[in-house]
Amino acid sequence: MTEPKIGLALSGGGARAMAFHLGCLRALHNLGILDRVQILSTVSGGSVIGALYAANDEPFPAFEERVRAALAAGLAGPAIRTAFRTPEGLKALLCWLLIGAANLLFVALTWLLWLGSLTLPRGARPRWRTESWHLPFRRFASRTTILRKAIDIELFKGKRLRDLQGRRPLLVVNAAELRTGSAFYFTPNQSGSWRLGRLARPDMTLAYAVTASAAYPMFLPALDEELPFDKRDGARRSERVTLTDGGVYDNLGLAPLWPDRDPSISLNVEPVDTIICCRAGYGLRHDPPSQFMIARLKSAIACIHDRAQNAAMKRLFELRDAGKLRAVILPYLGQDDSRLKHRPADLVSREEAYAYPTDFFAMSDEWIERLSRRGEQLTRTLIEEHAPGLPTLRSPAA
After folding, report:
1. CA angle, 247 as apex, 253 and 7 as ends, to 5°?
2. Rounded to whole angstroms, how far apart are CA atoms 187 and 165?
3. Which H or E run includes 372?
4. Cβ neighbours of residue 293 under 8 Å, at least 6 residues apart?
5. For residues 68 and 133, what is the distance between their CA atoms, to the nearest angstrom?
6. Whole-angstrom Cα distance, residue 235 to residue 229?
7. How far apart are the C-alpha atoms of 328 and 37, rounded to whole Å?
8. In the structure, what pLDDT confidence band is assigned to residue 285 with cuts at 50, 70 and 90?
9. Is the per-residue pLDDT at 394 higher than 70?
10. Helix 14-30 vs helix 45-54: angle between axes, to the nearest 10 degrees?
11. What's the whole-number mean pLDDT along residues 310-329?
């Protein structure tokens, strides 16, 4: 048989996903599969560890030590230090005051205009479309730009996407563009969106791409940018983009790996016939009673989010059953352990691991070991069950 074309997806899920994915990567490395992966698609927490791996020039044990150190330190602490020790914190404060004051004035003006229009006869009232009005300036700094600077200082040291050109696997960092409701992909080769076109700036930092992918909208404002794009008609135009957590669009990172993508429309089409999807962002929720609007909205969004991921999983296995994929491997943090055919005797159980929160605070060594060990064990046993020949399958010329 020919060498499989392997796509690896690392889901979102904050530091929990990073630790779980570390174990998955360790298993794939030890099985001889990791260096045969052709495309690495990442989201949110998966983007942090995925970008670290893609930019790695060291043996795997050294890479693992760096990831463990990053998990133990967390990103919250470095972000706080960055806010107080660099100008980015002051810029974010000034922007917050400016945006806050401008929004208050904007809302007050809108209400005054509406109330004033009520004093006019119905036929003479102006038909303003206030929903299309917006402030004439962007959010130029925020908690998200502070995090971006902290990630650059702590993890990537100024590395840029173009520094990874020619490397394998091809890194695809997934973000969501809110104005068009489309996926926005960052890669060393070409970045952009099918709606907006190809980004005409090849100098994006890894920290920028990872932060856009990990900017969870409940806590971090979207990156608000004016960027140049090369359009399909050959023109180059600037567009205002609003980039947020890639999990809003696809928390599993599967979109760049679907076998039926059209290269005339989509960017970075890399055919794959084997997909390994490491899933750590979806847990077994049991929320408290939702007595207030914010809690209800949070639970409703989580429900929609969970169902979207389940639908993607269903499509994944349908493609396999239809013969469009050779194999599907799904190491899943919330795996029902009783369904494993080759369950390890010392398996870290679902109940021991799945409840860790999806944040970026410092993680204890105990939790790093617990989550990474479960990721490693599930990856090994699922490959043994669903693709036992994958570790040794090579093309005749290999």
Report:
1. 5
2. 9
3. helix 365-386
4. none
5. 47
6. 8
7. 14
8. low
9. no
10. 40
11. 93
- 364-381 tens-digit pLDDT: 999 999 999 999 999 999
Half-sphere exposure of 317 (CA within 13 A, CB side): 8
Closest CA to 168 of 182, 186, 187, 184: 187
pLDDT tens-digit series, residues 181-211? 999 999 999 999 999 999 998 789 999 999 9
- What is the bridge-based pairing of β-strands 197-199 and 37-43? unpaired
* Closest residue by Cα to residue 76 from 381, 383, 373, 358: 358
Strands (DSSP E) found in the chain: 6-10, 37-43, 170-177, 182-186, 192-193, 197-199, 223-230, 236-245, 274-278, 327-329
Structure tokens at 23: 């174990």
Tokens of 233: 């008609």
- Number of other CB atoms surrounding residue 143 within 10 Å: 17
The pLDDT tens digits of the residues spanning 21-58 come to 999 999 999 999 999 999 999 999 999 999 999 999 99
Nearest 5°: phi and psi at 142? -170, -175
Taking alpha carbons only, the member of 152, 116, 111, 117 closest to residue 133 is 111
- Return the beta strands (E) in 187-339 as ranges: 192-193, 197-199, 223-230, 236-245, 274-278, 327-329
One DSSP character per residue, 139-182 reads ----HHHHHHHHHIIIIITT-BGGGGTT-SSEEEEEEEETTTTE
Q: For residue 56, give the H/E element and its range.
A: none
- In the chain, the amino acid numbered 172 is V
Q: Which helix (H) or strand (E) holds 126?
A: none
Q: What is the pTM of this model?
A: 0.90
Q: Which residues neighbour 267 within 8 Å (Cβ) at sequence distance 6 or greater? A: 185, 187, 190, 191, 192, 193, 194, 198
Taking the C-alpha atoms of residue 63 and residue 111, their distance in angstroms, rounded to an integer, is 56
3-state secondary structure of 251: coil
Q: Which residue from 123, 136, 130, 155 is spatially nearest to 56, judged by alpha carbons? A: 155
Grouping H, G, I as helix, E, B as strand and the rest as coil, residue 303 is helix
